[in-house]
Amino acid sequence: MRLGTTFNFIVILLxxxxxxxxxxxxxxxxxxxxxxSSKPYDPLKxxxxxxxxxxxxxxxxxxxxxxxxxxxxxxxxxxxxxxxxNPAAMQNYGFLLLRLGKFEExxxxxxxxxxxxxxxxxxxxxxxxxxxxxxxxxDAVSAYKKYIELSKNDPQIxxxxxxxxxxxxxxKRQSAYPEESKDDYYxxxxxxxxxxxxPLGKNPIRVYVEPGDGxxxxxxxxxxxxxxxxxxxxxxxxxxxxxxxQNESGGAQxxxxxxxxxxxxxxxxxxxxxxxxxxxPVIGRSDITLLSISPCRAMPMNEQFxxxxxxxxxxxxxxxxxxxxxxxxxxxxxxxLSIVDGKLSDRDKKTLYLLYQNQLAPQVVSAEVKKRCExxxxxxxxxxEKAVNxxxxxxxxxxxxxxxxxxxxxxxRDVRLATVLSRSGSLSLQMxxxxxxxxxxxxxxxxxxxxxxxxPEQFASCCKDLGNFYWQNKEKSEAKFYFERSLNLFKKLKRxxxxxxxxxxxxxxx
Length: 510
Known about the structure:
With 510 residues, the protein is an alpha/beta fold. The chain is 57% helix and 6% strand. The chain has 22 helices and five strands. The chain has helices at residues 6-18, 43-49, 51-65, 69-76, 79-82, 87-99, 103-116, 121-133, 137-150, 157-176, 186-190, 221-236, 303-317, 346-355, 357-360, 367-389, 393-407, 415-430, 434-449, 456-472, 476-493, 496-509; strands at 205-209, 243-246, 254-259, 272-279, 282-291. Strands 2-1-3-5-4 form a five-stranded mixed β-sheet. It is elongated and about 90 Å long.
C-alpha cells in the first residue's frame, strides 16, 4: 500500500504525536502513570510507543486523499483510541464519516473536535453538511454561519452563503407544511410554484445535450451518466415519460449544457440548475446547466457525485420544482457530500406519479362542475374574440387566461386547452411580449404535438408563430424546425398562400 512521499508520511506521524499549529493548537501529551512536572515529556518516545497507530492513521489519511474512503475508515478510526484529544485528527475522521454517509457518527465526532478546539474551522462546515443531510436545517444553518464567520477569506465562501440561503428558503416552505408523508414529498414538490407537467402522449420529449468538450474537468463519461439518469426517470414513470436525444438543438424541449463556473448557476452550492418555462400547468421547455467541476473543493466531481446531480436536475426539469427533506431522495435540498451512489428512491417515484396522476389516471369531475366550467369557458372565449376584433389585445389576452383556468378540470387531453394557449401566445407575439409569447406557444405546441385529436390548422398556426418568434430573435436553428413543421401541416391542408410564405422563410433560414 503506497503512502506518498516519505516526507509526507513523517510529517503526519509527527503532527499526531507532537501536535501542530497548522492542523490544531498544540496538544500537551502526558504520561498518566507519572507526574508530568517530575519528568520531561519525550516526543520521540511517544512516536515509538504508538507507531502502529500512527502508521495506520497515516495510511488511512493517504487513502482518504486518494478518494479510497471505505478502505480508509478502519485505519483512521484508530485515532479514537490513540489521539481522541487531537481536534484536527478528529475533524479529519468526522469528514471521512460524512463522505461515507454516516451522518450521525460524523456529527458526534465533529462536535468532539469543536469541543476540543472551537476554532477548528473545517469542522463547522462539515458539521453543517452532516446536519443538513439529516434534515436538521436549523442546526445546519447555525454551523454554516459559524463557518462563514470564521472563514471570511475562503475563496469558496459564496458556496456556503448559497447553501444557507437554500436551507433558509426550504425551512420557510416546510413551515407551511410541517408534516411530511413517509411515502412521498409531493406537497414539498409543488409548494415552490405549483403543479405543472409535460404533456404525455404519442411523442417522446426531445432532448439536446450540448457537448462539454473544452470545459474544465469534463469527461465523456458524463454524457453517458446523463443519458442514464434520463433513462432512470423514464423507468420510474413506467415508460409513460419517454425521451429521445437529438443531434441538433432546433426543437429541443429539454436543453442540457455543461459549465465550469459556479457563477453561471442560480445557486453556487449546487452542482447545476434547471430553468423550467411553463404556461398554466403545461411545461414548455426546460434548460439544464450542469457543472463539469465540483461546487465544493471537499468533494471531487466523481462518477457517483455527477450521477446524483443529474438525477436531481432532471427531476426539476420534469416539474418537481420543490425539494425533499430526506437525503435518500434525489431531490434532496442541498449537496449530499457522501460517496453513496445516487439512485431514485421509492419516494422519488411516488412523487413523480402523483405529479403526473392527472394524465396517468382518469380524472373524476362531477357533472355540475363540468357544466359550470363549460359555460364560463364559452362566454370568456366569445368575449376574448370580440376584444381581438376591437383591437383590444391586452383585454383579449386576459380573457383567454381566465378561460384557460376553466379548462383545467378537463385535463391535458382536452384540445381546447392547447387552442387557448396558442391564441394567447399569438397575441403576446403581436404585443411584443416576447418571453410570454415563447413560453405560451411552446406549451401549446407540446400539447398539440402529443395529441392525435389536435386541430391541424391551429397546430400549423402555432408552429408558424414559434418560427416567427425565433426568426425575430435570430435563432435560426429553432426557426427552421418550427417553420418546417408548419410547412408540412399547411401542405396537407392545401393552403397554398401559407406554403409559399413559409418556403420563403425557410430559404432565408438556410
